[in-house]
Amino acid sequence: MSYTFEIYIADGQEHFLHGPAGHIKHTHYPLSQSVLEWMELDVKPIYDITERLQTDLQQLATEKIKRLEKPIMEGLALLNSYHPYFAYLRLEWTERLKQARQQAYVNMENMLASDELIQLPKTLEKTQKQLRVLWNDVLDVDVADEPIQGKLSRFYTASSNSSPRFAFGSLQLRYALMEEGTFTEVLKVRSLLDMPDFFVRECLRRELPFRICKNCGRYFVLSRNKNAEYCERPFAIPTKTCKEIGALNQWERKKADSPALKAYTREYKRRFAWIRYGKTTEDIFYQWAELAKLNRDACLRGEITVEAFLEWLKMDM
Ligand SMILES: [Zn+2]
User: Fold this and answer.
1) Record's Pfam families (predicted)?
2) What CA–CA distances, in Å, run from 296 to 107, 259, 261, 285?
């Protein structure tokens, strides 16, 4: 084999060493991030890409022409853009295609039969279900606040439990000194599922606390702030994270309760009614409303006191 795909944990980070010999890349993410993303990954595009890959692979198997490798490599690169674990499939298939080419693509049919790549979307959906149940029953701090080992053994032994349970496999590990200066277990990835398996064990071993984000509904790890209610993923508007949106929502809630806003709303309605009674004109009213809004916001920002604002509201204009 002429490529490396290894993962390990050091300094609270997931590390990935991957690439063809001589071009090994090192990427890292916060611990649990890749497995959470795997759990939440949208399967729809994965179905589309693997379906097309299957067609392309079969075409190559039939026609045995080198240029037909190109769309396959593009499909694998596209797949990789959805999740870092797919980098493994990309490397593995680059290697397989190289071997197939050397043998004039004669044994490609065997290579494709029940392959991991073809089974991928189904496997993904299945593990997603298993992981969600595991997260809910064992790793979610809001479900039952008790030691993880107790929850875990009950989860795996309860005969009444008919929910899909994640099956741990056997992993090929070595224990080595890595460049972070830490001796740690290093996983040699031999199948896609080795990766969630490896990281899930670590989440359990470290008893990491997880919670469902109040904004996006996805799990996130509670790191510094154990009371956090929002994750820090980018949400919808890519420049805002759930945490920032959560802070905004909280500000909106606090603002709605503030005496300045209540007084403003009351006064606005009162003066708006004056237009109908001919006590004021629309022009005068809207001029007042503009100024009132400026003063209200200054008050909400703490630039003028609530008392001063209430006084101002009483003034005639
Ligand atoms: Zn979120």
Assistant:
1) DUF6076
2) 75, 10, 7, 16
Distance 142 CA to ligand 1 centre (A): 16
8 strand-pairing partners = 15, 186
Task: Find the 232 Cα to ligand 1 centroid distance in Å.
Answer: 6
Q: Calculate how far, in angstroms, residue 220's C-alpha sits from the geometric centre of ligand 1.
A: 8
Bridge partners for 5 per DSSP: 18
Q: What is the CA radius of gyration of the chain?
A: 29
Do the Cβ atoms of 17 and 113 come closer than 8 Å?
A: no
**Cα 26 from Cα 109, distance rounded (Å):** 34
pLDDT digits (tens, 9 = 90+) for 223-282: 888 899 999 887 655 567 888 878 777 766 776 677 888 888 888 888 888 887 788 888
Q: How far is the CA of 243 from the centre of ligand 1 (A)?
A: 7
Judged by DSSP in three states, 10 sits in: strand
Distance 71 CA to ligand 1 centre (A): 35
Q: Which string of DSSP letters, residue by residue, matches 190-254?
A: -STTHHHHHHHHHHHHTT--EEE-TTT--EEE--S-TT--S--SEESEEEEEHHHHHHHHHHHHH
- Which residues fall within 8 angstroms of residue 75, CB to CB, at 6 or more apart? 49, 52, 53, 56
CA–centroid distance, residue 231 to ligand 1 (Å): 4
218 CA → ligand 1 middle, Å: 6
If you measure from the C-alpha of residue 233 to the centroid of ligand 1, how many angstroms do you get, rounded to a whole number?
A: 6
* pLDDT for position 97: 92
Domain boundaries, the chain: 3-188, 258-314
